[in-house]
Each structure stands twice: as C-alpha cells, then as structure tokens.
C-alpha cells in the first residue's frame, strides 16, 4: 500500500500495511455509547472542547475519542509508539483528555470535516460518511504524518525538527485531502501527477486555515509544528516555494528518482500557480475551482498541463467562459511555465 506523506521519506519504499487490522474487540459492545463533551489541551497548549462518547459498563464509565456529532464518526487512536494502525481507541475515565497530540488530531479532523461539508456539501473523505480515523504516537520521534489509504497517522516529532504533527491544522487538512483525492481524481503518487497530488493537499491546507483560522491566515505549510525553536519558518511556502528550495517554474523542475520523483519538491510549481490564482480572485472562488477540478475533471494521470485545463474548465463551469476567473487560471499557469 502506498502511503502519502507530508514530507519526503528516506528512500522510496512503500509500507505494506499488516493484514492485522489492529481492531480491538470491543469488550463494551453490549453497552450503548452516547455522545458526550470533554476538553483537553492541544500541542501548543490551548484548551479545546472535544466531542467524545461515553460508555458505562460494570467496570465503570469511560469517555472515548469518538465524535458522534457529525455525518461521519471521527475516532482517534494511539499507535502507542509502534506502527500498528489504528491501534487503541483513546479513552479517559474523566471528560478531560490528557494527550495533546490526540486532542488536536481529533479536534482538527472535525474542523476539516466541517470545512468540506460547509463549502462543498461533502460528507467526509469519500463523500458518503466514511469514518475518519487517526492514529497519534505513530512510531518514535517520528517527524512525519501520512494518509495510509484508510486513515491518518501522526508522529510525535523529535522536538527539534517538529513537535507532534497533529498540532498543525494545515497538516491535518493536507492528510485528509489525500483521502479525498483517493476517492476522486486518485492522482498517481509519482512524478507530475504525484506533485499535483501533493499540491492539492497543500492548497486545501491553506483553504482550510482560511476558513477556520482566518485571523492568522498564512501561505505556509506546517508553520505551527515545524522547528519549535525557530520562529517564522515552515515546511513549505505556497506563495514562494523557492524560499524552501522548491521550484516555482518549469525551468527549475527537478528530475529525480527520490521522493517518488520529487513529489514534495515539484509541487512548488502548481503551488505557486495556486498562490497566483488565489491572490488574484480570492480564496472563496479559488477553493470552488480547485474542488470542482479535483472531483470532476482530474484523473489518475493528470499532469501539470492537464491540471491547467481541468482548473480552467472548472472555472468556466462556475464563472463563465472568458471570465476573469478563467483568465486568472491561465495567467497563473503561464507564469510558472505550464502551458
Ligand atoms: Ca499554514
Ligand atoms: Ca519553527
Ligand atoms: Zn502529502
């Protein structure tokens, strides 16, 4: 199974997910669970209200990271510093959840669910209420996050390069968008289609933060979790990919076999186009164009040039042929050398 990561991984290996599902037999399954409210501190120390469920058994009451309030159940597990997924559903004997990485993974998954529902009337990752599962404490000192094909995984970081990766809303939006992509265009995670896959995830990372964290809007990926001792940096800059060594024009396209053909590098080219389009017509039109292109026009093999055509067609559908929005798409791709 191919895992779509937030960051390049050393080498080019694909992880084969063990056939063992990690599902723990629910020893409470004779007992009904009901929705409950709790709270906990996130990775950056802020307190968040959490949707939990409550189960009472002969052994007592427990509150679990199962959000029953949305059109899809959102569940947050721990891999317990190993690599099994999903691992163990996180629970507490009180309504306080003392696990910052889990608090943010759970809360932000809800925010991203709400974004896709509010903006596009999409019910979860597959558009049909697919359960949203996340596993935190994946491996040890792990500086990455991923979409495994069925769920999200989040490392705790190493404390130097990053803190726990679920602390970034854009990171979680990025990973969930890999899931959305899988059920829509299903862009092959290699070369140009792979870089486009990465770019779509970065774009929705920006769009989701605009929706939910408007007062601290930015064009950066991962600024909240990256290098805790270094201020004002990030993993990537959508507005200026070259700031972190990524190309922003086809003249600088990187031909490599690393990182599935540089999917986290060459994403800078469509990222720059996304920045140019969005800064021209605004997030609220850009996100509609991007979503329509991803769900109606892009296919597994869409490359940068085809992406331009898909986005232009989506803009034509939404705003009319010859509209300023269509022109914005064409001008942006022309300026990054994609015709
Ligand atoms: Ca950001
Ligand atoms: Ca930093
Ligand atoms: Zn990714």
Automatic annotation (TrEMBL):
Biological processes, Gene Ontology terms: proteolysis
InterPro entries the UniProt entry points to: Peptidase_M4, Peptidase_M4/M1_CTD_sf, Peptidase_M4_C_domain, Peptidase_M4_domain, Zinc_Metalloprotease_M4
Residues in Peptidase M4 C-terminal domain copies: 185-338
Gene3D superfamilies xref list: 3.10.170.10, Neutral Protease Domain 2
Key word Hydrolase present: yes
EC number per UniProt: 3.4.24.28
UniProt cross-references to Pfam families, sorted A to Z: Peptidase_M4 (PF01447), Peptidase_M4_C (PF02868)
Protein name per its UniProtKB record: Bacillolysin
Lineage: unclassified sequences, metagenomes, ecological metagenomes
């Amino acid at each position: 199974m191919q895992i779509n990561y937030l960051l390049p991984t050393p080498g080019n290996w694909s992880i084969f997910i063990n056939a063992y599902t990690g599902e723990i037999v629910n020893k409470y399954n004779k007992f009904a669970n009901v929705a409950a409210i709790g709270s906990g501190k996130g990775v950056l120390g802020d307190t968040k209200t959490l949707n939990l469920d409550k189960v009472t058994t002969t052994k007592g009451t427990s509150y679990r990271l199962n959000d029953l309030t949305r059109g899809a159940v959102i569940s947050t597990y721990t891999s317990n510093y190993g690599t099994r997924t999903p691992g163990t559903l996180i629970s507490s004997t009180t309504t306080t959840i003392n696990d910052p990485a889990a608090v943010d993974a759970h809360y932000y998954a809800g925010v991203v669910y709400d974004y896709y529902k509010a903006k596009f009337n999409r019910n979860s990752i597959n558009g049909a209420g697919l359960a949203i599962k996340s596993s935190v404490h994946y491996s040890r000192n792990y500086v990455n996050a991923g979409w495994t094909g069925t769920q999200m995984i989040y490392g705790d970081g190493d404390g130097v390069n990053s803190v726990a990766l679920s602390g970034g809303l854009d990171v979680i939006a990025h990973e969930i968008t890999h899931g959305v992509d899988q059920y829509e265009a299903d862009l092959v995670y290699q070369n140009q289609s792979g870089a486009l896959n990465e770019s779509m995830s970065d774009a929705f990372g920006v769009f989701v933060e605009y929706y939910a964290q408007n007062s601290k809007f930015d064009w950066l990926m991962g600024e909240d979790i990256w290098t805790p001792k270094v201020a004002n940096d990030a993993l990537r800059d959508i507005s200026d990919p070259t700031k972190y060594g990524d190309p922003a024009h086809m003249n600088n396209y990187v031909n490599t076999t690393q990182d599935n053909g540089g999917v986290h590098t060459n994403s800078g080219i469509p990222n720059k186009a996304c920045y140019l389009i969005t800064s021209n017509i605004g997030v609220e039109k850009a996100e509609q164009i991007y979503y329509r292109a991803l769900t109606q026009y892009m296919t597994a093999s869409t490359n940068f040039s085809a992406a331009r055509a898909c986005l232009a067609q989506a803009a034509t559908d939404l705003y009319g042929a010859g509209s300023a929005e269509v022109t914005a798409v064409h001008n942006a791709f022309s300026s990054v050398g994609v015709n």
